Amino acid sequence: MTDVAAAEAPAATDEELLARFLRTKNQPTGSQTLGFRMQKVEQATRSVEVAFEARAELLCNPMGQIQGGYLCAMLDECMSVACMVASGMTAVAPTLEMKTSFLRPAMPGALKGIGRVIKWGKTVAFTEGELYDDQGRLVAKATGTAIPTPFKVYKK
């Protein structure tokens, strides 16, 4: 499997891509619920940094901690956006499978997510994601496999 995205020159700078994400008017409802906000794009490393603002009334279990499924969704967002960046903004990469390790409870408030593409091939992408609390402690880590799909497939 060749690492397709690695050989292509970026069509836009990291700053231009970040500005494009920040200008998006129709953010998916799931992203809004998670408090998603793009912070950084690094095309050279095929990675992104995302801020999440986890609201207790939406995302917490009865113990006051963010429910694990929402942490998985945050990690999936990070890894998926990293795939878009790795493709040069020409493809999405629906998740085929994902494994998450929960390392400590995550509390409501600010979380930082990192998503990166480890390998980008013609038919499969391998990704990693990490979530950190507001004190910089790793709360969850994930690996995933996704299927690169050109944007045009989704156009009607």
From TrEMBL:
Q: One cellular component GO annotation, for this chain's record?
A: cytosol
Q: Does the keyword Hydrolase apply?
A: yes
Instruction: Say yes or no: keyword Phosphoprotein present.
Output: no
Q: What is this protein called?
A: PaaI family thioesterase
Molecular function per GO: 1,4-dihydroxy-2-naphthoyl-CoA thioesterase activity
What organism is this sequence from? Phenylobacterium montanum
A Pfam family this chain is assigned to: 4HBT
Transmembrane segments annotated in the record for this chain: none
Listed A to Z, the keywords are: Hydrolase
* PANTHER family with a match to the protein in the record: 1,4-DIHYDROXY-2-NAPHTHOYL-COA THIOESTERASE 1, BLR5584 PROTEIN
Q: Where is the Thioesterase domain?
A: 66-140
